[in-house]
Each structure stands twice: as C-alpha cells, then as structure tokens.
Write a structure and sequence with these properties.
The chain has about 400 residues and is α+β, with helices and mostly antiparallel strands. The chain has eleven helices and ten strands. The longest helix is centred in the middle third of the chain and has 36 residues. Bound molecules: flavin-adenine dinucleotide.
Length: about 400
C-alpha cells in the first residue's frame, strides 16, 4: 500500500497551489458576491483551470487530459478547495464528476462531443439527480425517460443542480419508461442516465437557489419539459444506469471529502495566524493551552482526514472491493471533522469570527454542507454499518 505522492507529483501540486493563489484567489471575493457578473467570472475560471490542466488531470490524454492518477487528483482537489470551496465544487462537479461518468460509461462519440469541452473548461457540466421527493432515496425519482420514435424524451424537475445557472450540459438521472406498444415494449426498467445539452428544447432553469454557505456556487432547480434527445446522448445503455448512479454517488462523496479537507486546512491556517496576532491578558492567545489544544486537535483531524482520503483514492485506483466502504469512512470523518474544525476556528476568532464577512464564518457555513451533500452522514453510517455486519455474518 503506497499513497505517498512522487517527487514529480509533489512538484505539480506546488505549481498548482501557486497557480491557485495567483490566478484563482484574487477573483473569489467577486465570485462570492454571486449574480450575473460572478457567474461570468466563474466561467472564465473554468477555462483557466482547464488551460492549467487541473480539469483533465486524471483523464487520458486522448480526451485532452494529463494522464495522472487519482492520488494527485485528490491532492490537487484539496489545494483548490482550500482557496475556494465554491470554485472547487463548481469545477469538480463539471469536469471530474460529470467527466468521469462520461469517460467510464460514454461512447467515443459522446466523449468527443462533451468530455473534451468539460476538460478544457469550455463547457460546464451539472449533475441533475436530486428531486423534490428524491434525495437520499433515489428510487423515488419520477423524472421519466420515455422511448418513442427513435428518440428519448425526458420530463421532470431536478433540484440542487450545482452549476445549473451556467451549465452547458446536464447529466440527468431518469426513471426509464418503455412505451407499451413500442418495439422495446416490456414495461419499466432501471435508471437511465442522459447527457442533456442546455440548448435542447424544453430545458429551463426555473430558479437559482440561494443557500447559506457556498455563496459563490451557482445552484439551480431545472425543468426538463419533453426534452427530445437522439440515442447518442444516452450514457451507457438505456434502463441499466444503476452502476452509473452508484459511481455518481462515489464521485460526489469523493468531492465533498476534498472540499471538507480544504475547509479544515484553511481553518487551521487562519486560526494559527490569528492565535499569534491576537493579544489578551498581555499575551498572544496561542500561548493559552485552551487555544493551542484546539489547534492541535485541528491538525490531528486534518492529517487523519488527508490519510483517509489518500487511502480511499488508492483503493479506488487499485479496484479494491473495499474502496466504496472506505470512501464512506473518509467522507463521514472528513465532513464531520470539518464542521468541528470550523467551529473551533470561529471560537478562536471570538466575536470577529462571527462577522458575516469573516473567512472563518464562511468556512463554518460551508462545512455543514459536507454533512449533507455527497450522501448524508446518516447514509454513509448505514453503508459502513452494513459492511461491518456483513463481515460478521
Ligand atoms: C451543496 C450541495 C450541493 C448539491 N449538489 C447536487 C447536485 O449537483 N446534483 C444533485 O442532483 N443534487 C445535489 N445536491 C443534493 C444532495 O445530493 C441531497 O441534498 C442529498 O442527497 C440528501 O438529500 P435530501 O437533501 O433530499 O435529504 P433527505 O434524503 O430528505 O434526508 C433528510 C434527512 O433524513 C435522513 N435520512 C434519509 N434517509 C434515511 C435513512 N434511510 N436512514 C436514516 N436517515 C435517513 C438524512 O440523512 C437527512 O438527515 C446537493 C446538495 C447540497 C447541499
């Protein structure tokens, strides 16, 4: 088992960190104000990240990728998430989450049509899975993919689509419905996953959703009203999208793990700096044991989460059967630790940590998302408990 980065990978990560500090960080205050201009800026950052090579880091060069492994991808995800959780989740959702599903399950034609654009940052992708009555329980999805006249027709409303307002393509998870008198008759089957380009008839961003954290992340509710698509936009085969959905949940969990680690790293850095500069009772507050012990705990949680994320990436690239449950462990630990770390960071900053515009206040708000998005803590606990109990049987 070896999940240490090579010297070459460490160098790449350092270069990427420098790029993020110089080329991404200066634009984050504008992104966090939201609105049309912020969305325009975010789109330009996708292109910059594409040109640097981050978006295609772990993809084959055939599709414009750089051919690196998942370990370096995970390490660089944390670097970007530390600079901005919102920019990270936007870029990750588009290129890595959507991109990996198309790389693993799409045809060569679909890769040419969509994947190359995602990896270059020219096209922005959005995952449309969640619905009003289908969050953790994806069996309750009602968005329908109906076959008729050699086309697939998609109808339904999707919630919480990250990148929805700026997306050029949606990766839609639908319930497959076969029309009874068609040649494919046989009733309903499993999920169908489709790439739906934004300019397809019937696609409408119904509303931009505002949330209390991730303020720079564009999120939308999107309606698909009898959107007609040729067969080539079906990812994998029609009605057999269960494995694609499972993999989608894994990429989601992996992304939220990195986002949580980035939040922890930033919280520790800000708290350490403040603990040296803030004076109380004639001393830097960092010299009080109660403060330094919080810093120590934050450091221990950060390092543990990093190790878990690296091991999860390593197991996944080795194709280890334990990879999925280990990812659940990493995601659960990292997201709950991020909330704890961000809470400590606010505490160390005292009243200044509660100011709306303070960095640690926004980390505190963003951290909570990690316990809900990418599979809730409860759902990951259920998956881990099941594997423990199965091992006993
Ligand atoms: C920042 C963010 C980004 C997101 N991005 C996307 C996106 O790009 N695309 C997309 O489609 N969706 C996205 N989502 C939605 C996300 O996937 C869902 O929020 C998540 O799956 C949980 O669903 P829910 O919110 O409907 O909660 P529910 O499933 O309704 O759960 C509510 C509560 O009940 C608990 N619960 C549910 N079932 C069980 C059970 N069996 N046992 C025990 N407890 C249970 C949950 O753990 C939770 O505490 C995003 C959400 C957030 C916050």
């Amino acid at each position: 088992m070896d999940y240490e980065l090579s010297d070459e990978q460490k160098k790449y990560k350092e270069e990427f960190a420098r790029f993020c500090t110089e080329q991404i960080a200066p634009h984050c205050p504008q992104i966090d104000r939201g609105g049309r201009q912020a969305h325009k800026k975010l789109k330009s950052l996708h292109r910059k990240l594409g040109a640097f090579g981050y978006l295609g880091l772990s993809f084959p060069d055939q599709w414009g990728g750089r051919g690196h492994d998942l370990l370096l991808q995970t390490a660089c995800d944390e670097v970007l998430a530390k600079v901005s959780s919102s920019v990270f989740l936007s870029a990750y959702t588009s290129a890595i989450h959507c991109g990996k599903l198309i790389e693993h399950f799409g045809t060569a034609e679909l890769k040419r049509l969509v994947l190359e654009g995602l990896l270059a940052g020219r096209t922005i992708g959005s995952v449309a899975r969640t619905e009003a009555q289908a969050g953790s329980d994806l069996g309750a999805i009602v968005t329908a993919a109906t076959r008729g006249n050699g086309e697939v027709v998609v109808s339904g409303i999707k919630d919480f689509c990250v990148n929805g307002p700026i997306a050029g393509v949606f990766l839609v998870v639908a319930r497959s419905v076969v029309v009874p008198d068609s040649k494919d008759a046989g009733g309903e089957s499993g999920p169908t996953v489709l790439v739906v380009p934004r300019d397809t008839g019937g696609v409408e961003v119904v509303e931009t959703v505002e949330t209390f954290g991730y303020v720079g992340l564009p999120i939308a509710r999107v309606r698909f009203d009898s959107s007609r698509l040729p067969d080539r936009f079906v990812v994998g085969a029609e009605g057999v999208g269960r494995r694609i959905v499972e993999e989608s949940l894994e990429w989601d969990a992996r992304g939220m793990t990195s986002a949580s680690i980035g939040i922890m790293a930033r919280a520790l850095e800000a708290s350490f700096a403040y603990s040296q500069e803030r004076q109380a009772f004639g001393k830097a507050i960092g010299s009080f044991q109660e403060v330094s012990f919080k810093l120590a705990e934050m450091r221990a949680m950060l390092d543990t989460a990093r190790l878990l994320a690296a091991k999860a990436a390593w197991l996944a690239q080795e194709g280890d059967p334990e990879a999925s449950v280990f990812l659940s462990c990493a995601k659960l630990y990292a997201s709950e630790s991020a909330s704890k770390c961000a809470g400590y960071a606010v505490q160390i900053h005292g009243a200044r940590g509660l100011l709306k515009q303070s960095v640690v206040a926004s980390l505190y708000r963003d951290a909570k998302y990690g316990e809900i998005a990418g599979g809730t803590s409860e759902i990951h606990r259920i998956a881990i408990a099941r594997s423990v109990l199965d091992a006993v049987d």
